[in-house]
Amino acid sequence: RGNADAPLTATVVGxxxxxLALAIALRREGVDARVYERALELRxxxxxxxxxxxxxxxxxxxxxxxxxDAAIDAGCVIKGIGFGKASAPDTFKExxxxxxxxxxxxxxxxxxEWKYGAPMVAIRWSALQQxxxxxxxxxxxxxxxxxKGYQVLPEGAGVRTDFCRRDGAPLPAVTTDVxxxxxxxxxxxxxxxxxxxxxxxxxxxxxxxxxDGACLxxxxxxxxxxxxxxxxxxxxxxxxxxVGSGQVYWAAGALDGTFDADPSL
Length: 265
Fold this sequence. Notes:
It contains 8 helices and 15 strands. By secondary structure, it is α/β, with parallel strands linked by helices.
């Protein structure tokens, strides 16, 4: 580094949850971190739903207690976890097991907070992105910045990173001490750094969406308020989750080949 007394600088490629959280943490430690995101805007309807388990909430607390509080407020603290079969129980034994699982699910959600000191929170991906971005100065998030490539400069002079607009117009090159690739599953930074192959197909298909809970038939049985429910079938799963603000996240998954033979769930 040319000036050892100057603050460290970092370029974070990707304005998703990981990139934003990292930038907040670095800036709290005095690093001048800036985020470069290819999207034209941080949309309020991007993504579906995720779960912040107690360790995730505690990680946010480690960055800033108020950040964890904001994430909890934007999502839904899960107070009950329901488990069941994709098909209705046929026998008395199945009904008894189902009732026991219902009780166990309620205890599980509460016991996690007792044991680990943080709740389990379901939240819409975009809502958490909005929370994270609100903890950064607006001028340190560059939108419509598409990663083109990087070059490690000689003699410890840092890393030069090149970006362009979506229309191909180049942006001024950015030179910082550190470059972090947080640009998702098909990371362009990782591709240049490691030259590895594309992601492998895991043999599973997943359909998912976030809907207005008021429009969901049988809302109380499928996904009670402050609850989540998981249904398990032969090579198939379905889940419902209260993500706050009156919204419900649902997902249906199947192993390859299972949904062609029997489309019912």
